[in-house]
Specification:
The protein is mainly alpha-helical. Helices cover 50% and strands 6% of the residues. Strands 1-2-3 form a 3-stranded antiparallel β-sheet. Strands 4-5-6 form a 3-stranded antiparallel β-sheet. The longest helix has 27 residues. It starts with 9 loop residues before the first strand and ends in a 29-residue tail after the last helix. 40% of the residues are buried. The chain binds carboxymethyl coenzyme *A.
Length: 436
Amino acid sequence: MTDKPGANIKTGKISVGDKSWSFPVYPGSIGPDVLDIGKFYAETGMFTFDPGFTSTAACESKITYIDGDEGVLLYRGVPIEQLAEHGDFLEACYLLLYGELPTATQKSDFDYRVNRHTMVHEQMSRFFQGFRRDAHPMAVMTGSVGALSAFYHDSTDISDPQQRMIASIRMIAKMPTLAAMAYKYSIGQPFVYPLNHLDYATNFLRMCFAVPAEEYKPNPVLARAMDRIFILHADHEQNASTSTVRLAGSTGANPFACVAAGIAALWGPAHGGANEAALKMLGEIGTVERVPEFVKRAKDKNSGFRLMGFGHRVYKNYDPRAKIMQKTAHEVLNELGHRDDPLLQVALELEKVALHDEYFIEKKLYPNVDFYSGITLKAMGFPTTMFTVLFALARAVGWIAQWKEMIEDPGQRIGRPRQLYTGAPRRDYVPISRRK
Ligand code: CMC
């Protein structure tokens, strides 16, 4: 811990029965203090128990801050709204990786470095042929990003800062190429090589939607929307996939392997898979008239149904990303002439009804980033199976920045949680002939 206080250290007391112990309390620059229970087991013989990590800070970090009650998201201190309005994705990447906004020279140098790494080894295309054609693109991404460690072995020595930085740049540069390849493969179209004079988002959209038989005309409104979606998803503190990357990285595994683990964790419907689930739900609702019926179902615990794209472990207020996403959805639908898209009408009505409903108010359930992203991405031409892939593409920078921060922390140790064991106590092995 870098800012560990000295003699004036605050302490917190924990009492169990008639015994009590003191532990140091460290302040954050903003946000809650933490009670350092690192010596808790050694001193008390007990573990602490927090299976969903609802009260546990698993690391110290200077990258991203969320105030869930106020609906605030900061990348290195900079509000997400300002970055989404004035910045671009590679600027956000620079900020997350290096801790400061780049100067004009630093920005153009960084853009150049990323652009120089957009191609993937040609043998990768043969690696792709090994996947079934109908494989989910997230399965393809998990496999192909993991395979990068086999293709780029020269940047897997994690003790070398130079290799760490090259691996980071490679990850940001190659994710769009791999994501577009996963898409093209799933629809049986030829892979489109990157074109490095294009900006990051335009390059990606072209790799997804260009075909050799026709000229591709970039649409700046859609490219700007894509870029903004990438900014919104770039990092989000210690969520499930990021924690997976950190845990995998704590063993010394290479960054490509760690990010592959993060992609696998992101795939679940409670995490990155929610945008796909939210769009599916809006389709099932179908018309504005059916909204109350679905809201009623979401409130019924026995129905097993939840409003997808609603609720968040940390945000107990409107997810600031959802506000920007809603605006982006309108811009994209206007540009494409889908202003009256029935899914958008259903989403707006659902949001209105839920925000006025006692159940959602009381439980502080607000739309999250995934609520409007599905409608937007669908209008842009992406199939639902690609939604989580786009999330993974954008989040790669967050994963890699968090991984780098962890590796560069001198106090870093392998992550190794403990457990409350409630299984059988010691018992003897019974030979199979004597078992009943
Ligand atoms: N619809 C209806 N009820 C809900 C919902 C919902 N979407 N979300 C939470 N609740 C209820 C839940 O039933 C529980 O009620 P009770 O206290 O009476 O048992 C209460 O709210 C708290 O829910 P929880 O599951 O204990 O909260 P959590 O922090 O463990 O879960 C969540 C957070 C995001 C998994 C959950 O809100 C959810 O399943 N939402 C739908 C899926 C979704 O949109 N996920 C995307 C998250 S944002 C993108 C990302 O970070 O990946």
